[in-house]
Design brief:
Elements (H helix, E strand, L loop, with lengths): L10 H18 L20 H16 L6 E5 L5 H10 L2 E6 L2 H13 L6 E5 L12 E6 L9 H11 E14 L9 H10 L9 H7 L3 E7 L5 H11 L29 E9 L2
Parallel strand pairs: 1-2, 1-4, 2-3, 4-5
Antiparallel strand pairs: 5-7, 6-7
Helix pairs in contact: 1-4, 2-3
The structure holds S-adenosyl-L-homocysteine.
The site of S-adenosyl-L-homocysteine has 25 residues, from helix 1, helix 3 and strand 2.
């Protein structure tokens, strides 16, 4: 269960935040088609943040294991970078949904520019109530999106509904690592407030999937490869008090900075594979 003291994100507000983020990233030159953190395979990997961000997309697509006959749902598709990679790697059909109109517009433009608009399409929709018939998809990818949704169980139940039996879902999620302190680290609270996310409960994840009709295949703590190093790299590249361009929405009065997260071991990240039985 999500910690009941956490403020639940409202889809409409999350959509507006990503509208602003998308426009500001296009204006200030920080636009990246992959909107998530980085993955470094080894501690001594010298990959840049940009390379590591692209690498996480590949790690997730590896787990999806789809071929050219598949129709994939990208749940919380951002500006379409990951969906376009699925189309390029597996030649699969992809439908992406985002709660941000600006992201959907941008993603459809990128698909047209890549010449794959016949196979890759993006719609504005709320994951809490998907506009698709039962068993429409062979696989679902939810890369760093479920934490923005007000109810993980409802989101996963919807994902399960639109998935065919035997179909697979691969997702990533942020969670608070043990030992959990009585009072949460203020940097995590600020992060959650600024980006409108809640932290998952890793101890409940298998049960959460089961309550949603899914069967757990694999649950991995990939904190060491992801959040920790991402915060280190961002802290290096973004000086002292200034905000991470294109990451921290400029309208926010306050104030999460990646360097706040240095040494915060509780800030964890999960990679989950499940299937509809
Ligand atoms: N998966 C993409 C984007 C991650 S950013 C990538 O890795 O590049 C989080 C995404 O989740 C955004 O696109 C946001 O619009 C989407 N999202 C958040 N809440 C949503 C909701 N309720 N319904 C649909 N999409 C949602």
């Amino acid at each position: 269960m999500t910690d009941s003291t956490q403020t639940l994100p409202l889809p409409e507000a999350v959509g507006e935040m990503y509208d602003r983020l998308t426009l500001s990233a296009m204006n200030d030159g920080t636009f990246n088609p992959h909107v998530h953190i980085g993955f470094w395979d080894t501690p001594d990997s010298e990959a840049s943040l940009e390379m590591a961000v692209a690498r996480l997309t590949e790690v997730v697509i590896d787990r999806l294991a789809v071929d050219d006959s598949a129709h994939v749902l990208d749940l919380g598709c951002g500006v379409g970078g990951p969906a376009l990679r699925i189309a390029a790697r597996a030649d699969a059909r992809v439908t992406g949904v985002s709660i941000s109109e600006e992201q959907v517009k941008t993603a459809n433009r990128l698909a047209a520019e890549a010449g794959v608009a016949d196979r890759v399409r993006f719609d504005h929709a709320d994951a809490m109530k998907l506009p698709f018939a039962d068993q429409t998809f062979d696989a679902v990818m939810a890369l760093e999106s479920i934490g923005h949704m007000p109810d993980r169980q409802q989101a996963l139940t919807e994902a399960c509904r639109v998935l065919r039996p035997g179909g697979r879902i691969v997702l990533t999620d942020a969670f608070e690592r043990a030992p959990r302190k009585e009072t949460r680290h203020p940097a995590i609270d600020r992060f959650c407030d600024n980006f409108m996310v809640t932290m998952a409960d890793i101890d409940d994840y298998a049960a959460l999937l089961h309550r949603s009709g899914l069967r757990l295949r694999n649950l991995l703590d990939i904190t060491e490869q992801t959040t920790r190093r991402t915060c280190q790299e961002l802290a290096k590249s973004i000086p002292g008090g200034s905000r991470p361009a294109g990451i921290d929405p400029a309208h926010l009065p306050d104030q999460w900075h990646p360097s706040d997260m240095l040494g915060v071991d509780e800030f964890g990240y999960l990679l989950v594979v499940a299937e509809r039985p």
